[in-house]
Structure formats: C-alpha cells, structure tokens
User: Fold these one by one.
Assistant:
Number 1:
Amino acid sequence: MSMLHTDDVNEILTLMNPGDDPVLECMEDQANREEFPTVGHEVGAFFRLCARLMDAESVFEFGSRFGYSAYWMAPAIGPAGRIVLTEVDEEELDQARTYFEQGGYADRAVFERGDALEIVDRYDGPFDLVHLDHENERYLAGFETVREKVSQGGMIVADNVLHSGDAMSPADLRAVLDGPHSPEEGSSLAGIAEYYTHVIDDPEFETSVVPVGEGIFVSVRTEA
C-alpha cells in the first residue's frame, strides 16, 4: 500500500492487479519473510506497462536484488528482448536466476554480479528502459553513466524518490527543493534532491513524477 494516495485509490489499484503469478507470489513470500520491501504490485505493473507501451526490447537495471522488479518487465520485452539484472550479492543474484527459470524468462535475462555503475560500461546499448534502484545517493551517477546509452524515446525510471521509510518523505523533499533546508550530505534525501534538480533541467530529457509505490521519477529522452 502506498502512502502517496488515498485508501480508496489503493483499493482500486489492488482490484486492477494483473492475474496471479505463482513465481511473483513466491518472491513476495520471500520478501515478507526477510522483511525486504519490494516495489510492489502497483509499481511492478507500471513498469510492465511502460515496457509494453514502448515496445521495449532492451532493459538495464541498476540494483536487482532477487529479481522482483525485473521479473515484472520480463513478459513485456518478448523472447527476443534482453533485460540486464545487476546485483552485488551472489546469493540474491542466484535466486533471481532461479525465479526467472521458474517463470520461463531466463532466456531473455542476463545476470551480472557486481557494481552496476561498472557493469553498464561494458554495454554499448541502446537501452529502451533503465531502472535505477540502487543507492539513492548514487542515482545521479547512474543517470550520467547510462544517459548516452538510452535510445531516443527511451526512459529512465528512478524508484523510491518521494518516500523511503524513516529516511525521507514528500514533505522532506519539498523542504529541500524550496530551501534553505540542507539535508545531511550523503543521505538518501540529499541524493534524491540532487537527482531531481539535475534531471528536471536536463534539455535532453523530459521528467515527470508518478505517485505510485514510494514515488517514481520518469525521464524520457526527447533528444539524442
């Protein structure tokens, strides 16, 4: 459930969830056991919709954990598509591979262990869709590292940008953007504020905010 909209909207979004997928259910059970917050159904469904609307064939993900968000996008990219998952934890990357195999999508996934900022340098692109879900304070570095590899009309989506547990809230971000409040250097809030002020002024991208889950910044490349 998102704190960014009303209970009524939450109920409607729940009703509109795609049909049950036993692999997604297993992933969510694991997340509940480990008390790890996934992007959830509404954000996952939004990612899948973006991929379908764009006819995306190439996806790169900065930070994949055990593959939950990437799994949502996998059906939309088709058998000829490729989605690159990155994760520093070997065990979680192995779990992602297992889930993709169970769902029948392993043939369209590449599993890369290590730092996504280093891994993306090994790829020429172009990418139709890029998902930023690593450390908030490194979102801007991720954006700058991948921007020239995003196709015209391609999209960069940054997750967890309006709310993140006790780390930040929409009111906190608003206070920073309005000034003169200065967040602690290196904090999630500082990283998100820096990212937002950078991408909103970028002449090659058009950026908007989508209030689902914990908030998403969506940046579409309008100029190559």
Note: The longest strand covers residues 150-159.
Number 2:
Amino acid sequence: MNNFFEISWVVTEAEAPVLLREFLKTKQISKAALTDIKFHGGALFVNEKEVTVRTSLSKGDIVKVHFPPEKQSESMEAENITLDIVYEDEHFLAVNKPPAMHTIPSLYQPKGSLAAGVLFYYQQHAIPGTFHAVNRLDKDTSGIVLVAKHRFAHSLMSKQQREKTIQREYIAFVHGKLKQNFGTITSPIGRNPDSIIERMVREDGQPSITHFEKINDLSDLDISVVRLKLETGRTHQIRVHMASIGHPLIGDDLYGGSRDIIKRQALHSETARFIHPFSDEEVIIKVDLPEDMKKIANRIN
C-alpha cells in the first residue's frame, strides 16, 4: 500500500490561470504544510508530472498533493479492540466511545485505549495514518470522538475548532431539579491547586461558556436530564460548571455527585455537527445513549 495520503482537484475555469502556490492556498494548504511536503517526502503533481509551486495552472489541469508519510507514535501500540464506528470517509472517522475507555493511553492505563483500537483498524484496512483526535473525552464520558485520518484533515478541523464552527451536544443527568429550563454558565475554569486532576471555578481561570437546556426531570429520583452545548472546551468543563450551580452530574464523585445510581459521571457526547472541509457539506453525527444511561432514562420516561 502507499504510505501517504493523496488529495486531488481539477482546476476550474473560474480558478485559472493561477500559480500552483496560490491555488493550493485557496485549498487551505499553508506555507508550513508546503514546507513539510517539500522536505519530508511529499510531492506536488500537475497532470501526473511532479512540479514546484511556481507552476502555472490552466483550466482542466489535475492537481495532486502527496502528503509526507506519517509514522505511528512509538508511545501507542495497535490493539485488537472492537470499535463502534458511526461515520467514516477517506478523511475522517467517528467512533462511539464506550464509558471506561481512555481516548489515548496513559501512564497508568497504557492498554485498551480508543487510539490503540483505531491504529489496529488502520492496519487491518491499509489506512496509512496515525491517530489524530479532533476531540477527546474523559475516560468515563461516552459518545462521539472524531478522528482525522491524516495531518492535513486534522489541521483543517483544528481551524474549525478555533473558529468554533464544530458543534457538539452532550446529554447529562444531574442531581436536583433545575429551576431554569435554559441557561448559560460563563464562570472561568482553572486547576484546583490542591489536585493534579481536579478543576474548579476561579477568577483567574480560562474563559469557559456552557449552554444548558433542561429536557426532563424525575422528582422521585431528584434528577434532571440536561442537554448541553459548549462554546469552549476546557477540561471537565461540563462537570465543573454544573457542579458550580449546585447540580453535579450523578456518578461524578470528583465534583460532588453520588454513585448510588451509576458508577461513572452520567455524561454522553450525543451529537457532532461540522462542515466537511473537503466537500463543504454539513455532517451531522448522532449516537444513542449507552445502556447504563438508558436504564436511568427509562425510569424518567
């Protein structure tokens, strides 16, 4: 198999005449990416002939970019782990991560990560890439993890992250009956100086914005079901913000929740929306609640 990703375009009448350098700029290939292509084993082609960025393009020319080969991280090993892949194309895949699985291996849990399963999947399907997570979830948070199959796709999605055009919605079960049906939490979040893991609301923290909507509640269990949208992506943001207004997630004993009903924070990344950077089409991915949260939801409904 080829150990590189290839992307191609046909030059349109509206685009021509144009220098290859300027054409690739319109395709969001940066100067840094061109330098990487030039010096690390990539190549540029026009009508199957290798060229430089100074080449002039005409209508109908076929431009191909071979991106440099990618090496898998030495800190990650492929493992035969069954994945629930809910979306895939030549540039991305989305995995419905179960609870109790790390997104990437850690010092204390080097085995069984989502990344290890994706690398094995790549090997089995001759996909020449390494693991590029567009987003990550805490070990005990379930739901959608979007993965780019190559560096260029990852860089385009990172740009969308910065521009806040990737939208994610979460479902959480929280303690207490929310008095507001809608709300926005804007408290800044930073590290708890007494913990290497825990975050907290603090005046000198990073700006953090969480929108919430109550969609149901169960009075006899004193639980509300909440849909949440993030404008920022701070570590533990939903968990910290909901605890800060007196409604910690059930199961989240780190931030004041009880584990009587569920043994992990009841948080699920349900929906992801983004504009596909190669097709310009909107992609909407949605996954069901995992079984442990469904059992609670059935009691609520």
Note: The chain has three domains: 6-66, 71-163, 168-268.
